[in-house]
Specification:
The chain is mostly helical. It has four helices and two strands. A two-stranded antiparallel sheet has the order 1-2.
């Protein structure tokens, strides 16, 4: 019986969290033809994805980052802007 109560409370907790994080800001984020990122964390995460894409796409499509030509991969990696802490 206590497992049922705990499961119900967890489901309720996640349902409220989902509503607050996804359903309420949906119209603000997806407005018109563009996506509006609403916080600094979203911009940071998209920068990480963009940096990974710049490095990995040539390696995946043209085998530039393969062990046979690592110097090209390392030059691409060195050319990326580094975040200072």
């Amino acid at each position: 019986m206590s497992g049922l109560i705990i499961g119900t409370l967890l489901t309720l907790f996640f349902g409220v969290a989902f509503y607050l994080r996804v359903v309420l800001p949906y119209d603000v984020v997806f407005s018109g033809e563009r996506i509006k990122l609403t916080g600094m964390d979203a911009y940071w995460q998209m920068r990480i994805v963009d940096s990974w894409f710049v490095i990995s796409l040539p390696a995946l499509t043209l085998s530039i980052g393969s062990p046979t030509r690592p110097e090209v991969y390392y030059s691409l990696l060195a050319s990326l802007p580094q975040k200072s802490l």
